[in-house]
Design the sequence.
């Protein structure tokens, strides 16, 4: 198949913990981003590539994003290192129609906060507890193939409510932890023409991204989040003589023939 026949997924990761922590590199010797990409590439209709924080433009060039159908995002230690210009670039692609999957501690990433418009804050505890992820909507495409009403991860970081997010369009999972807390661990949104899925599991010192159910959810989510058309990001002027029906212009206007505001256009001409 040519690239255009694949679902094109870019897996973005900080790749900081993997370089600085033996506990993390032991679990993910090639990085979490590679483990996630490998899991996605098990689906022969998906072509997943990786990008990391330390690359020029964080690996998220305009060209790569233009060729990305779905972006996954894992961040933690380097949230503030992400350039605001790149955040805006990613946000604009989501509004156009690119899907995005935010993973685990990516809840505090600049891009997720920008898309949500809220704090995205939560409570947490790192104690290697059992997490039971209950399926809230068995008919949803993201959970297809999971056997039973829930699946479990034997060791995970706890996230607890309240979770500072807008009311989700759909709630896919709710998690219960050994300590008794619950958490909205799988939620979806639509932002512009792009689909957003937040999926909670994925603490860096646990083998979560090697889990078959977690991998299945991410693959399903990538298919669910694929683009459905593309929203325009500009406001082009349609001249009256290009309208589908006959238009006879009437009245005064502050705009030039090309649609520019006359006072602004005059200032630009004067500046030249």
Sequence:
């Amino acid at each position: 198949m040519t690239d255009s026949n694949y679902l094109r997924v870019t897996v973005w990761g900080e790749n900081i913990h993997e370089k600085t922590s033996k506990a993390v590199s032991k679990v993910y010797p090639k990085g979490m981003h590679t483990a996630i990409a490998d899991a996605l590439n098990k689906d022969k209709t998906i072509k997943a590539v990786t990008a990391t924080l330390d690359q020029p433009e964080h690996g998220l060039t305009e060209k790569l994003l233009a060729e990305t159908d779905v972006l996954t995002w894992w961040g933690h230690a380097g949230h503030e290192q992400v350039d605001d210009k790149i955040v805006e670039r990613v946000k604009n692609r989501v509004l156009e129609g690119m899907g995005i999957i935010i993973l685990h501690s990516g809840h505090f990433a600049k891009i997720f906060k920008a898309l949500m418009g809220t704090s995205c804050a939560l409570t947490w505890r790192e104690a290697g507890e059992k997490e039971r992820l209950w399926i809230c909507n068995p008919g949803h495409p993201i959970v297809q193939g999971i056997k039973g009403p829930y699946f479990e991860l034997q060791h995970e970081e706890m996230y607890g409510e309240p979770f500072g997010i807008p009311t989700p369009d759909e709630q896919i999972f709710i998690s219960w932890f050994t300590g008794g807390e619950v958490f909205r661990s799988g939620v979806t949104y639509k932002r512009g023409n792009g689909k957003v899925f937040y999926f909670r599991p994925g603490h860096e010192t646990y083998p979560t991204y090697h889990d078959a159910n977690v991998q299945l959810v991410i693959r399903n989510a990538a298919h669910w989040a694929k683009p459905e058309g593309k929203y325009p990001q500009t406001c082009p002027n349609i001249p009256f003589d290009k309208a589908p029906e006959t238009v006879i212009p009437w009245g005064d206007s502050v705009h030039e023939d090309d649609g520019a505001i006359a006072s602004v256009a005059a200032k630009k001409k004067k500046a030249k």
